[in-house]
Amino acid sequence: MRFIDEARVYVQAGKGGDGAIAFLREKYRPFGGPAGGDGGRGGSVVFEVDEGLSTLLDFKYQPRLIARDGEPGRGKQQYGHQGDDLFVRVPPGTIVFDESDGRVLADLVAPGAQAVIARGGQGGLGNMHFVSSTRRTPRIATPGARGEARWVRMELRLVADAGLVGLPNAGKSTMLAALSAAHPKIAPYPFTTLTPNLGRVRVSDDEAFNLADIPGLIEGAHQGHGLGIRFLRHLQRTRVLVYVIDVTADPLADYAVVRNEVEAFDAGMVGRPALIALNKVDLVEAAAAAARARELAEASGLEVLMVSAEERRGLRPLIDAIVRKLEGREAHSANVTTGL
Ligand SMILES: Nc1nc2c(ncn2[C@@H]2O[C@H](COP(=O)(O)OP(=O)(O)OP(=O)(O)O)[C@@H](O)[C@H]2O)c(=O)[nH]1
Ligand SMILES: [Mg+2]
Fold this sequence. Notes:
This protein is an alpha/beta fold and 340 residues long. It has helices at residues 58-61, 172-179, 251-265, 286-300, 315-326; strands spanning 6-12, 45-49, 64-66, 86-90, 94-98, 104-108, 114-118, 149-156, 162-166, 197-204, 207-213, 240-246, 274-279, 303-306, 336-337. The protein folds into two domains: 1-156, GTP1/OBG domain (Spo0b-associated Gtp-binding Protein, Chain: A, Distorted Sandwich), CATH 2.70.210.12; 162-337, Rossmann fold (3-Layer(aba) Sandwich). The protein binds guanosine-5'-triphosphate and magnesium ion. Guanosine-5'-triphosphate binds next to helix 2.
């Protein structure tokens, strides 16, 4: 399935039904009393989280979402039927913005959560409401109100606890595959990952967290280079960032590039708990790897874990360190864990 994480749709709620003008007709009373009922409320457009969805793809093909109008009131004091609400299923992590002013209309995360995105118009009042001692045969009723209508923009943000960021080819997807049951595409060239992947990392029998892997970032990503930084939004909700750095390249420079891009995208994100997974340590001498890890810990002020995603080494300490950050239990910063 194609992964689509942005969509623009037009939503229109139903108009309320008009109030009716009617009179009870009785044999010797041609105008036997006003009896026009109220119109029914128009249907609303309601977004609802469906856990089974993971993309906004459907909205590419169905960009107009229109709920039904309410029915007009009828004689004999009968109300018109309400227009049915239109329920629209969205994936968990969907944020809905009003396109005209950028206001957040809804932030839908929990399965089953609902939000009214366009409210149906009220039904009009029938003439039975307008009778008074001086006005026995009112010929007035009010029309139904229009339903709300607007263009909305939707953004999907993965609901992950922790996220992997790094340059292309650093081994992020290999790490997600090693830590979870996910099977992201892995290849020995940059820009292998084109859309985010999500996996569930088991910590113990009753503990787990969600981990996201996004396409690699390059210098200038925030100016639109590479795959751009739009995928970083998937890490905006994550509580812990894991910088994946290739030990065989230039760890200090690579970390600086990635951190700068994250900061350019959202300065708040670099203040969050983070750690560094110094990857591919199987490819260099142990002493050289340790020296680079120490340099990196000093320069970044972050905890650095030496790992080999490919050979699945150092993963347990990495999981434990992520869990400590998730739980707000800070390890000493700027230290190095080999755990190999
Ligand atoms: N030797 C070694 N190779 C690794 C390790 N981790 C990843 N690789 C290799 O590095 C290459 C890139 O790995 P990916 O997991 O696709 O890298 P990525 O960071 O997801 O790359 P993008 O999706 O392009 O951003 C693959 O050939 C992996 O097999 C490791 O710990 N040791
Ligand atoms: Mg990848």
